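[scheduler] slot 2 assigned
[scheduler] job type: sequence-to-structure, two independent chains
[scheduler] chain ordering preserved from manifest
[runner] begin chain α
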Amino acid sequence: MSHSQSQWWKRLGAATLTAVLLVGCSRDPNVRKQKYFESGKRYFDKQQYREAAIQYQNALQVDPKYPQARYQLAQCYLKMAMWSQAYQELLRTVELQPENLKAQLDLGNLLVAARQFKEAQERAERVLQKEANNLEAHILLANAFAGLENPAGSLREMKYAIELDPKRSESYLNLAWLQLRAKQTGPAEESFKKAMQLDPHSVVAAITAGNFYQQQRRWPEAEQQFRRAIELEPQSLQPRAALAGLYLAQGQPAQVEQVLLETKRALRDNPEGYRMLGDFYFRLGEWEKALTEYASLYQEHPKDLQVKKNYVQVLILRARLDEATRLNDEILKQNPKDVAGLIYRGQILSRQGRSNDAIPALEVALKSEPDNAVAHYHLGIAFSQVGNLGRAESEWREAVRLRPNMVEAQRALAQVAQSKGDFDQLRERAEQLISTEPASPEGYILRATARLSRDRVGGEADLQKAIELAPQNPIGYSRLGSLRFAEKRFNEAEKLFEQALERDSNFSEALQGLVGVYIQQKQPAKAVARVNAQIAKAPDNSAYYLLLGMLLTSTKDLEKAEAVLEKAVELNKNNVDAFLLLGQVQLRRGSADKAIVSYQRSIQENPREVRTYVLLGALEESRGNWQKAQELYQKALKIEPEYPLGANNLAYLMLEHGGNTDVALTWAQVARRQMPDSPNAADTLAWAYYHKAAYGLAIGLLEDAVKKLPQNATFHYHLGLVYQKTNEKTRARVHLERALQIDPKYIHAAEIHKALAELSGD
């Protein structure tokens, strides 16, 4: 072999040996897990916590009992605010490595945050058994004692921690908050000052001191600290947010707006910073400003998904559903399981009157995030729109369980309680609203409603509080006016209603109250004049034209009433009450065809309003078009299956025209269940029992109906037939004859005469 060949074989052999060694190393689990661990550390040092977590998870797949990887994975979760996952990894770490004191302390701090103070105390004491002078353990123990309502022990431990390191600024901040908790305001302020003295460049110390002064309502000192924090770290979001919050607490929205404009300019590359102004407008309900701001942000930052989502939400709230749909479809095209996108889709469909389609979208969102309170709330809205009020209430209750301070869900439950007359539940919801938004009049107004059912004084105090909190809000004056009206203190009621209208010329409730005062005093002309005067101030208020139409109808000025109601529906095509009254006025004027057109217009504009279907059905039924009436009742019940008038009318129509008796009985039972005191529902159910030959069940219902409406010929006719079937001839004859006495031209007179003849022939 030549020299060159020899060298070639040597190189080949060396390369082969290296390859073998590399393959051997790659199969060594210790080497593999270490490589993953080191890769995770590199990502962690670059603050790429999600990527670091993946590498630590890879290491743990190789060796599930690798405590260092467990601990570092927990640190990633802590950085990403994934508290539950961090807690689980820390638990596994200390199981594998009980001597890892840092893990024990991290675990203890999570337990404090979760208000599991006793368990946190045990973790701190476990560390102190190993290291009696561990500063972090003494601080953890101090915080645990504070949660366990042991202020003396808490302050003792914190002061001992300070003795261990008297130059540590953060310890004085912790001491200050513990002193505040123990109601030691003066010493707490000294501790804040000491913290800032030890570290004059600490933004955390400045913000914390500012929060302290804000709690004490020492506004200038709080502002000074927040502005100092901004100077220390101009690119930091937290001090700017704190300053905006300070102005908001003082009720100075213009100053808040200015701070957030400055934040947007200073932090133009920080998404949380440039989004704050739009979020502020959203929080205040200034929808047009929010819409303009988000539209601008979307143009400037088209790749910011959160901006896009916020923009979609405001578009939905402003009823710009086509634009919202287009943008939201883009979100869901990118990620079909995007929970926010699915919730937006549910909202859009609900607002389009397609609640049956909204429900599946929201349920898909909840499969991904079962604890999403917003999804539960909107699912409740969708169920309420399809008439499933029980399921709606259940979803709202779940929403407030998950997020007790969710005002929208609390408000929905308050409305449910109010509709049921459940004043205990209403008061509970009102007090939750007061706790969540103590500066808002809404909770006090609702609690006043609950209290006034039993306690006039307490209710009045709540109304006065609502006025004090929001002197420019008309609702407090209007509700107090209603109270004075109920007390027959009409002059005071009139003044209060006028005060409400001075604050909001479109506040319909107050004008209704004012009209009520005049009607009670038998002054209908004055009521008409006052409504006309208010229409001059608010000419686009459809509700005012409806109110005027009601007054003109009551005074039998039907021609003017019709014209006014036409104006009401022209201004607001969703004013269903105006459509319904318009149809009734047209009927009274002898124009059934015009009434039908009005009802059909109402259905076209408001396809989910069941009352219109039932009224139009009754009109068609009266004209002999019973098939058309049946179709309309069925449409109403498809929208709201428990709607009692639709169920009652459909059941009776089916019984009268040879429909399925079993189906008719089911609808009659729905009507009776929903209207247990209605004689008409009792009669319909009894008539269904008659057709099922269940005469014993029918008798009690019909006797109850006759007792409540003794001049109703149909009730006597039905009861007479039932008595005939049970062979109670005398009673049968009495009721059949009574039906003819009430209405000699009764539609079933021939059948009654036939039945009487049969009774006489027996």
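[runner] end chain α
[runner] begin chain β
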Amino acid sequence: MKKIVSRLRNVYSFISLSHGYRNLLFLFLFPVFFVLHGYNENFGIIPFSVILSLLIKYFIITLAIIIANLVLFGVVEKTFLYSFYLLLLFFLFGRLYDTLHDLFTGSLIYSYKVLLPSLAIVSVLFWWWLHKRKKTFAKATRFVSLLLIVFCVLEVVMFAYYLATGKQEENDLSGDFKIENNKPAPCSNDHLPDIYFIVFDGYTSSKLLKEEFQFDNSGLDSLLIKNNFFISSSSKSNYNFTAFSLASTFGLDHLKKGSDTGIIQPANVLQAVNTLKENEMIRFLKTKGYRFKNYGRFEIDEMPLKDDSFFDYFYYDLIDKQTLYARVKRDLGWHLAAKNMFTGKFRAPGSFKKRREEYLQRNESNYQQLLKELSSDNDSPKFVYAHLMLPHEPFYLKADGSLTDDYGVIFDTLDKRKGYIEQVLYSNKLLEKLIDASASDGKRERVIIIEGDHGYRFYDQANLLKEFPNLNVYYFSDHDYNMLYDGISPVNSFRVILNKYFCYELGMVKDTSFYLKKPGQY
């Protein structure tokens, strides 16, 4: 009992920063170093709010580890060393796992079944060794403290260097095209159109649906033609990743050279997201007095989102994904949550159901808001961006809108091709109402673009180019489509709008597709 009271007093002495316990504060440099290093690796991408949130979380974890070890050891130096060891495991587990994976690909050495028990045994042995030793470890403590200081200073120097050299400018993937560098021809454009940009994520072309899936989509095509839409039946998306595709479309150009091919990391995705946020088309429309409505999945300047942006969690993952907790949660958490620990039977986790409900509700909300916008008129022109995650995976829905099997979605056992067609059929029901609402008359001229930002994406290596054919249709309320052509791709959509309605004479860029790979893909 006296020992417990004594060690609790040690905890109090640390919290009150009594002399002799202040050395433990150097351990808080570990999370500072970890966050600074992660930020420098992704310089200029991660918002300050994310950095602050992660620092607070890591400080709390560090504090909890120090206090627990003060109770266990009762000696400052041993507490310091074992806490440092645990922080080392926590913060650098991802690096360790990835290194072992690269060195021993295909081996059990880096599997969680081997790695986690091995680390647990090492941790127990190290604790036992420290506990039995009579040394104070003062020199080791000073060395580790100095090491943490040096590492933090190096990261601060690197931060200052990147800031001075403008490294953050590398995150802008937009091409060289600037609307302001082009002058419109003299013409009257007093009646600017309402513009609707509508994305059905992952919707491929009718041609490919017929050739690849033996699915006849002529019913939708006939409805589009009946309502005076123009169909770019041979259209192909310019990129096979959403953020890159939309950044290119809103930027009216292919993205910066170097981002057009190769393996795409999460940081590259966020570069595309940030490029989309500050894009040419929205900047231009702002100068023309447009109002903006965002029922999409991405934050765009002048178009704030009510809900989180689709890739917001990527900002946290750029740093947090290296930690032990994040890796285990990502790789094992879903398995543990989907299995009843007492019966061993499958159960759909509450977190899965909640995530699915929010996902589907957001689709429905975006769709209903879009329909309202199509039926409303205003004195000033508006630009409406709407984005539905359909028929894109996960394949939650059947053709009638009912839910698919929980087990199949969680464990990825669903027939993806069948699941995709089911959601194409469901999407077509939404499109039927949308097409009717689009073709109705209003006070203003109306421009409507409905596109798939890319197509179906589950192909083998020999068929990867089939990811590009996409739905791409246009509605102009005057039904004059002379400036359009079959095969026009999304990168040229807004160039046509500028030429037709704002008197520009912009040339079309090449309708090219750039294939981007995920890490580890082929």
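[runner] end chain β
[qc] chain β: The first strand starts at residue 194 and ends at 200.
[scheduler] slot 2 released
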